[in-house]
Request: fold
Amino acid sequence: MKIDTVLKVINFYPPLFFAGIKLKKVNADKTQLTVQMKLNIFNKNMFGTHFGGSLYAMCDPFYVFIIATHLKKDYIIWDKSACINFVRPGKGKVQAIFEIPKEELEKIKNEVDAGKKNFFFETEITDEENKIVAKVRKEVYIRKKAK
Reply:
């Protein structure tokens, strides 16, 4: 499936759909994705706040999507590891913005072509008052496909 198609249908992917996770905005050059999640019965923990697993799920695939959009089919791109630090309970609607500027994507391509394979990205999940709910660090593995 092409990455553009994935971005159009991702909101219906069951693990995201049932958690209430929605890709809300994709900028014109597909270097920035905005993801939101409203608190609901499927993502609420026993304390009435966002379940940590749902907070992580809203951050899972999006850096890979940005990279795959720009590097196309000549590269293998996988999430390798992740770390999430919970700062405060998430209530109501939360949001995360994933961004890799075009210049950085070009740098990543050049570094992968030279043999580098692991790259790190960070974002924050914020609430409606723009307070940090969690900080996320993702490691993405990228390599050029063998010819």
Helices lie at 3-9, 14-17, 52-57, 62-71, 102-113. The radius of gyration is 16 Å.
